[in-house]
């Protein structure tokens, strides 16, 4: 029996890390159910991707040769058809931007309940029990699903990626694409994080977040960056507000950085931000909330009002 | 041309709060217009101001209290609003339930464009817009941070991970889920707030929409604060003292050496 059907994700010729994490998560769920883990590879360099995904724990890979890049109309149709044929207990998809662009459509068309952005999941006595966050990651919740057929999207970085070569069956799946239902056309891609400064090259980053409150207060952080001979960066809300340009944004949708020292000021440490900076060698947090998730990954911290600490720190370096 | 914008009133919590069973204790909750929906409303109102659309209708699923939040959308320029509620809906609002309710509203309104926020700040499911599109068989695009719409087709930028945007054309009528940063949401002016008092909010029950009871297959069984597993060295004391200690560490790491 097929317990889990997971769909790999790739972009611009490369498999994304979450594809291997889907194998880790999917294998766990399949083991709970005593069934098989099947993967689907839709479009792109199928042979190469299939070789790479033939890892321990994967029972079968279904390949579908449809297009070079992700198109949600194609992915929705293929996933729906595969799910109808294999009837897996769980359709497992990434909670990536593209995952969120088709997983809800798949769940709706299949009439399955959907649990998104899951950070932990297992079956207990045949019931799916999923852990997810709410209220900007301030709380965790447990959700039980009263259905034997479910669709789940998993947050990247929460499961280890699969290792070890597997003895995987590979089958071509002959999907029938209704072209009249392909109503979106991908014209290309654009890099947005260009501009005058490349924050990913900086050795020391002073990064500012929502805690700065007002646009004019950014000046204070600029002063600190100058005093430390550091480069100024920011979390998403600062860029959304137009207070700093997009090339300064650190995070999942911005730049990934790995400086020697990262000083996070007024940044709570939402998962999307952490995804872009956790590779920093030393992380310093200045935030007045001792429970802010940034302290989970910080090496040094000052739990205090940034408007008191930052001027004092500037004075130290001037 | 008519744009339907879904707006949600979301609960926001400060740093300190308590949990009561499987919910945040009501004493610690404040209610506000969902941040992502604020951008969706702004995008719709800008289309109206450009003359591309004639009417902006805001729809929400929420109790009477949420009319305060919907008035914000009206004050910012939406023309009228619809609020759907029924006591049986409380605690049931998973993606499928929301989709069923909104599908019934779309059947009545027949909009040319639907805008939703990418997600709500409280439940953080991020799925209603695309689920709704599938249910009503509209084309869609998720996580849109740039939109050009001429009334017949939409050219969008979808924000992908890693500073990359996907450029996509979508046939319309369509559902677009709107990402923060696509525009600068306006503040509601005093004039707008006064005008909003005169605008119509139509309250509807599930029965009005022809829906006979909703059931959720998801059950929230636990809510708890995640443990902070910090092994950070935290400097304590007055700001002047903690700054000295931090400065010492930073100098050791070579910061500010030049």
Describe the structure.
The complex is a heterodimer of chains A (318) and B (258). Helices cover 27% and strands 29% of the residues of chain A. Chain A is an alpha/beta fold and 318 residues long. In chain B, helix 2 crosses helix 5 and helix 3 crosses helix 4. Chain B is 28% helix and 31% strand. In chain B, a hairpin with a 2-residue loop joins strand 3 and strand 4. Chain B has 258 residues and is α/β, with parallel strands linked by helices. The model of chain B has no long low-confidence stretch (mean pLDDT 94).
Alpha plus pi helix count of chain A: 9
Number of strands of chain B: 15
Distinct helical segment count of chain B: 6
Helix content of chain A: 25-40%
> Kindly, what is the distance between the CA atoms of the first and last residues of chain B, rounded to a whole number of angstroms?
60 Å
Shape designation of chain A: elongated
Structural class of chain A: alpha/beta
Tally of strands of chain A? 17
Compile the SSE list and pairings:
The complex is a heterodimer of chains A (318) and B (258).
Chain A lengths: L1 E6 L2 E2 L2 E2 L2 H16 L2 E7 L3 H8 L6 E5 L7 H15 L3 E5 L8 H8 L3 E11 L2 E8 L4 E7 L4 E5 L14 E4 L11 E8 L12 E5 L9 H11 L2 E4 L1 H5 L20 E5 L5 H7 L4 E5 L7 H4 L2 E3 L3 H12 L1
Chain B lengths: L1 E5 L2 E5 L5 E2 L2 E2 L4 E5 L1 H16 L4 E7 L5 H9 L4 E5 L10 H15 L3 E5 L10 H9 L3 E10 L3 E7 L4 E8 L2 E5 L11 H9 L2 E4 L13 E7 L8 E3 L3 H14 L6
Parallel strand pairs in B: 1-6, 1-8, 6-7, 7-13, 8-12, 9-12
Antiparallel strand pairs in B: 2-5, 3-4, 9-10, 10-11
Helix pairs in contact in B: 2-5, 3-4
List descriptors.
heterodimer; A: 318 residues; alpha/beta; 9 helices; B: 258 residues; 15 strands; 28% helix
Give the gist of this structure:
The complex is a heterodimer of chains A (318) and B (258). Chain A has 318 residues and is an alpha/beta fold. Helices cover 27% and strands 29% of the residues of chain A.
